[in-house]
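Appendix B. Chain record.
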Amino acid sequence: MVITDFLEKNARFHGSEIALVEINPTEERDNAHTWRESSLIELAMPDAPYRREMSWRAFDAMSNRFANFLLSRNVKPGTKVGMLLMNCLEFLPLYFGILKSGCTVVPLNYRYTSEEIQYCLDLADVEILIFGPEFVDRMDVIIDRIPKVHTLLFLGKEVPDYAVSCMRLMNFCSSSQPPVHMTEDDIAAIYFSSGTTGFPKAMLHRHRALVASCVTEQKHHGQTKDDVFLCIPPLYHTGAKMHWFGSLISCSRAVILKGVKPEWILRTVTEEKCTIVWLLVPWAQDMLDAIEDGSIKLEEYLLDQWRLMHIGAQPVPPSLIKRWKKYFPDHLYDTNYGLSESLGPGCVHLGVENIEKVGAIGVPGYGWEARIVDAEGNDVPDGIVGELAVKGPGVMVEYYKNPEATAEVLHGDWLWTGDMARREDGFIYLVDRKKDVIISGGENLYPVQIEDFLRTNDKIKDVAVIGLPDQRLGEIAAAIIELKSGMTATEEEMNEFCLELPKYKRPRKIIFADVPRNPTGKIEKPVLRQRYVSVPLVEAQTTN
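Structure tokens predicted for this chain:
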């Protein structure tokens, strides 16, 4: 079985039902479009509608048209086709069209600079690239430096002179199933690491891994045909897409929201009757802050159908979930651990039945195994910190064209994640990234533990702890603290708050500033290290 089989089944048996909805909350609310397969050009890129929707039949037809267009360009099995798009209604149909053609899909991070785009296109041997209007300026810079890319397809109206209109060309192609035979062992996708530790690495995945992600997600969260999934994170990333796979396998509707403001999220949940919402930590924090400062009034929204809130992509502070349950006591909750090397979330998850274990990342996911190992690969006893290793159907084939890096993380069937963890009572607790551990005076400090403690302070919106060089101790822990709007704090105040921590865990430096996060919610610690290697202390901060 291959991943596209699910789409074809949904189109065959439930073709007229809505598969995807796109909500653009910055536009007029009375401006809406329904995607009809017979009118591709007119409705492909309408002028900034508030709401667009697409049926399963139209979804499958667009995928077929794009696949047949690619085949008309004499692509070979495994030809690399890049996608540089913001979240939009067309993203998933084009993604599946690439797969249906037998090509390998290569989604790119929409925050990449021109240089990073060039680097990734070259590393992945991309020959065809589809990109949107948001990226024209960045493409202009590198257009003469990407010789491997022989075809540039544009998703938009004002087509650059070095590209051609994707939708206009697709309109001349058949919407019938393309004549391509695929197996579960065929290569399906190349995904890139988030780049939080340097230039991204490219990960090769088979169709069988994509299918396994569908099954794992549905087993964990029990999606049925009646569910409606609200998708906010970027679709180029394995996290959002693999959670959407639960909608694909259950033939249920998904809503793509182009914005993260708390009122937009709650309004969309209300209007679209969303039942499952996957949030990143900053968005959940913003929502709770808005509820607590009175700018959001929950009684103005219809939320009874919302059954599950889950979070992934980063460690989740227990204090956050305690606050969440105060306002949403009936919500099921899950946290999902994964990495692009294991094809997104699900290799470890808490499980909705284990809410009392908040703070743990959970137990091995459906079809997965997990171990905590020392540097030699030996299992460590419960309670002892070691490296988390996972084994299951979503483990990557390799880092593409990087055998040295592959050998560092793949040990037989086991993927060493680079995350430090411990096991207690059968549950796995994430301690920190291996590369983020701070060694101060011979003691190992795990930033996540310090960050979780600091987030219990009512004035703190977000925090990141990094190691900075110190002549005597080797490294010291520095806390970059982002305060809630309107709050003021001093270094002395924060130091006093940290007296509850063991002395060796207390931050030696307090910096008041914004905490940068990437689109998947991960703190960009390399950015912070570069920024604060020799920064003077800031005595106080007031946010507006």
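Further analysis of this model is presented in Appendix C.
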